Every structure is written in structure tokens, then in C-alpha cells.
Amino acid sequence: MGITTNEIQRVASLAKLRVEQSDVGELSSQLSKVLDLVNQLAEVDTDGVEPMVHAFELSNVLAIDHALASLPRGEVLMNAPSHDEECFRVPPVMG
Amino acid sequence: MSATFSRVNGPSELDRLISEKSCVRIACRYPISHARQFAGSGMHKGLSRAATFPYSLSMFDTRLSLRTLRESIANRSVSCREIAEFFLARIEKHNAAINAIVAIDPEIAIEAAKAIDRRRAQGESLPAMAGIPISVKDILCTRQGTTTCGSKMLAKYQSPFDAHLVSRLYESGAVLMGKTNLDEFAMGGSTENSIFGPSRNPWDVARTCGGSSGGSAAAVAAGLSPASIGTDTGGSIRQPAAFCGVCGIKPTYGRVSRYGLIAYGSSLDVAGAFAHTVEDLALVLASIAGHDPRDSTSLPDPVPNYAEEIHQTPTSLRIGVVREHLEDDGLDSELRDALQASIETYKRLGASIIDVSLPHSKYCIPTYYIIAPCEASSNLSRYDGAHYGFRAEPAPNTSGLSPLESMYENTRSQGFGAEVRRRILLGTYALSAGYYDAYYLKALKVRRLIRKDYDAAFEKVDILLGPTTPRPAFKLGEKINDPVQLYLEDLFTVGANLAGIPALSMPIGHTRAGLPLGMQLQAPPLRESTLLAAGHWYQQQTSYIPSIPPAFAASST
Fold first, then answer.
1. B377 prior amide bond cis, ω within 30
2. A29 CB near a chain B CB, below 8 Å?
3. Which contiguous run of DSSP H or E holds residue B492?
4. Active site residues of B
5. CATH annotation of B26-392+419-557
6. C-beta of residue A12 within 8 angstroms of C-beta of residue B421
């Protein structure tokens, strides 16, 4: 089963990636080959098999209920492409 | 924060980023000229003493083991500073040929070594790794220097915290000496997809050192680091260890905290170690394993004393030989012969050899190449140009997108390399409406069947033995344009990640052309001691001596 160029553009938009028209052909052929590989799974009988999300299915791992210091604001903001004294700055959300 | 790594061997893209003034706290203490000097002919003052390093150079191979380094530190035949200078001099001389180490701060390393020497002089009892130089894959967060993941996206990123295992290494007295090259965000098996350019195999520089922890494997193989930390999501420690002729261990999932390990496939990722001998692996693993409340998947089970338990001779060891692996058509014939010889050795030592089957083996790669990209597409959604890392400006005419959305799109399209974009697209596709059940859910079900195969096998045997890779190291560039060919290289390694079990790779010889061959041992969850003891036993009984590629032998340092 291949992946069509329309599907590539749809998935790229979901992943917030842009795929140039000139790259769609090669990408489609590469991803289709990967899909051919993974489609082998269709032949495995998995009726009644529970999905395995994690190697060790731990649940309700609780942390000790007390406040811990978070990272210093200044050190965190230093890595931001744009920031003011307190906040991250981004381009307009509406526009 | 005293972040002062110097760049070595960065390609023009990185030079450009570094030359933009805004980026670089990394250059604040060392001007770029220093980095160049480090990579090139000169070396900063203080390293001249390396010439008086007291080891006999002819003993180079064996004396690089952590065990010998520790003994020399303990009996005061050498200072930690001299050890640091020795390895810095080797890095200066040999790193350019293999591009294994991508950032290093010699002064901080020497200061750290001197601090250990002072503690020793005061009669303090020193922790297990005191004075041992160690390099760390550049996907593990260090406050020192940058943590780039080999990506333009994080080329300037300076972590405000140390990864749990990095803190543990400091506590154990280790001297951090270099961040190592990798495939971007650990996605790849050849260390060719890196902003720093490819790393090379010390045994043949036209070939890959494997990946994604290729820089770590190459650094140990070439004698630039006596030990190194890598990460393994589908074989990224074991495959480069096999290609470079060193030992590498991927512990049980959750045995080492993922806090500060930048996520690729969260249900598969685990950090582990490279070294020349299995005994050395035990020492490093003991220093980094253990529970960490900051990683909710970290296992609370107590950590055995690996360094002690490794010496317990595994009498009546039951070794399972995975028929599907040894009889695989794609298996290199010299590798098959070497494996047969290793099986004979174990038999001679008194182990029982039992044929076992992992019937779902052939589905490991399809399962992995759904689950890992799905998890990657989710994990890498955090790179949005807002909080940290690279940002591209929004397009002036955003054609239906808001300026914010356009910034996201430009940032992610320009900041990620081709393989990372491919895996994000694949994962997004497999998780999208209409495909989720057919791909992701199906893969999770097959994952359970794969784990059940292992559980059944481990009812009959203590460990599994087989090849680490189908073939020895391939040539650089050979598979870069054909993702599927590269994915198939992971045939024997991904099973351990899907099942969450520990596995190690160790050298068992060379091809006639001189390329290293690797054997993989796998054990049930949390049975690292069995795995390490079996590997150590083999190395003891075969009088294993690590070899260094001739071009990197200690002719001058």
C-alpha cells in the first residue's frame, strides 16, 4: 500500500512540517517502501492479544507530595529564541 | 553557569551558527580560535606533560581498561591529572580522523581531575570511577556546554540541568571528557545524519562506526575515551559496539533513569555504556543504574553489585542459540563462523547449548518501525521554536496560516534533518485517524507476542546468544538514500528494546579484511548480572585483550 502525495501533504500539515512539491515524489516512494515493510504485520494473528504499550506496565507511580524547586526562570528563558523578563515571546497567534 | 565547551570539527553550518554572536555561551571563555587550535595542530599549555605519561606504551592496549586505570590511581603510580592529559592529547591527535567527539572543554576536565587528586592527597576514600575520563553522547543533558542531539534544532541549546546519569557519574568521581557524535536525535544507524558531519570507523575510516551512538563507540575503539555513555532505542549501543570492536551494554528498560535523556522513543529508550571489556561495563553500569523519582518509568528494584557478581563463574549456564538469527540468509559467512567458534568455546567451558526459537523475530523490524516513529512524532512535537532551540521567522505571506503557525512550520522544516522529518511523518501517518488501529495498535499487539517469545525462551535458558548485526560495518554513504536498507540492519537488536530486556554486544574477532565482528547476548529483565558474568567469563577464558586499530596505536602518545 503506497502513500499518495495528497496524504503526504495532509500528514505534513498535521506534523507542522512543510514538504516542498519537488520533494513529494521521493518522499512518497521512500515512505511507501517503509509501509510495505511494516504491512507484513497484517499477516500476524493478533486476535485476543492485549496491546503492549510499555516494557513494564507500571501504573499509578506516585511522587512524594511535597513542593520542589523548579528550574530557575532565568536559566530556562536563556534558551528561548525570544523572551522578555518573564515570558516566552512568539509571533502573533491570530493574524 | 560555566558553559565553556569548545567545538571541534564543526562543519560550516555550525561555524555559521557559532559565529552568530547571540548563540554562544559556548564560546564565552574559549574564543573560536581556541577551538580551532584544539582541533588542529596546537594544544593548550599543560599538555606537554602527557609525554611523560608513565605507562609503557607497549602496554597501551591492556592498560586502557578501567580496572588498570583504577589500580594505577589507587597505588598512586599516576595522577588523575596525568590520565586526563593523556586522553586529551590522544583526542587532539586522533579525533580529526574519526570525528567521534564533537565538543570538549579541556580546562574543565583537567580541573575536575585535579580536584580528585586533591581529595586523594587528603586521604579521602574515593568513589568507584574517581579520575576515570568518560565521554557522553550528545543527547544527554549536561549543564557543561551544549546538548545538541546532532541537530540544527538544538545547536545552541544549553541544558539548565544535568541528566540523572550525568549527576551520577560526577558523584562517582568520573571526569566528563567530551560529548560524542550521533545520528540526529538518535535516529539512524550510521552516525551520518549529524550536523557535525559523519563519524568514522577507526578500523576503516571509509566505513561507518554504526549508530546512533557511533561517536561513543568510535571514541572507545580509538582509545580516545576509556569508556563512554550511549543510548539504545533499537540497537544504537550494540550495533556501533559490534562495528567498532568494543563492548556495549543496553540495560533493562528503566534500569537507568531517562531524566535528561532527550526523548526519541520513550517506551524503548535506555542509556548504557561502552568500554573495552565486559568487566569495565559492569563498573560503569553500577555507577549509572538505579531508581530516580524524576523518571516515573525508572525501576525501583535494588541495583546488584555488578562489579562483584561478574566474578561469579556461571556454572551450568544454559545458552540459547536463536535459530532464526543464526540461520538468517543475510548473515555474513565469516560472522557465522566466528559465532560458531564462540558457541564451541562456551560448550568447552561447560555451558549447555540449547536451540531456541523466537517465532516472531521477523516481525521485530516492522513493529519497531511503527512504534518508534509514532513515539518520535509525539516527542518531537515539543520543538516548536517557542521555548528553546532554533526558530525560523514566519513567512511574510503566510497563506492561510497565522504568523505563529507559519513560525512553527518554518522552524520545524528547517530545523530537522531529512531522516527526522521522515520519521515524524511516518509516525504522524500511523497515528492519524483511520490508520491508528491498522498500524499503531497492531504493532503494540505484535510487541506483546514478541515479548512472549522471549519469556518462553527464558524458561529454558539463562541467556540468548547470536549475532549483533547481520554483517560487519558497511561503507559510509552506502545506505544513506535507502532508509529501508538501513532499517534492516537492526534485525537482531530491536527485539531487546521491544521486550525491554538487557543485552550486550562484545567482540569475537575480525573478518579477513580486518573489520570487527560482534556477538550479542540477551538476558531476562533485570538479569544484567547474568549477562555480564557470561560475557566476562568468555573474555577471561579466551584471555581477551582489547585491540586498538593500528592507525590509533600509541606510537607517540
1. no
2. no
3. none
4. 137, 212, 236
5. 3.90.1300.10
6. no
**Rounded CA separation B462/B312 (Å):** 15
> CB of B280 within 8 A of CB of B529?
no
ipTM for this prediction? 0.96
Number of H helices and E strands in chain A, helices first, is 3, 0
Tens-binned pLDDT, residue by residue, of chain B (557 aa): 333 344 444 434 444 433 332 222 222 222 222 333 333 323 333 333 333 344 433 344 445 789 989 988 888 888 999 999 999 999 999 999 999 999 999 999 999 999 999 999 999 999 999 999 999 999 999 999 999 999 999 999 999 999 999 999 999 999 999 999 999 999 999 999 999 999 999 999 999 999 999 999 999 999 999 999 999 999 999 999 999 999 999 999 999 999 999 999 999 999 999 999 999 999 999 999 999 999 999 999 999 999 999 998 888 999 999 988 999 999 999 999 999 999 999 999 999 999 999 999 999 999 999 999 999 999 999 999 999 999 999 988 767 899 999 999 999 999 999 999 999 999 999 999 899 999 999 999 999 999 999 999 999 999 999 999 999 999 999 988 888 988 999 999 999 999 999 999 999 999 999 999 999 999 999 999 999 999 999 999 999 988 889 898 865 44
Test A95 with B267 for CB contact under 8 angstroms: no
Q: Are B189 and B146 spatial neighbours (Cβ–Cβ below 8 Å)?
A: no
Chain A, 37 to 76: residues with Cβ < 8 Å from chain B are 37-42, 44, 46, 49-56, 58, 61, 63-64, 71-72, 75-76
**B24: nearest Cα among A72, A86, A78:** A78
User: Cα separation of B414 and B31, whole Å?
Assistant: 28
Residue A31 contacts B where some CB pair is shorter than 8 Å: yes
Annotated domain spans of chain A: 5-42
CB-nearest to B484 from A37, A61, A92 is A37
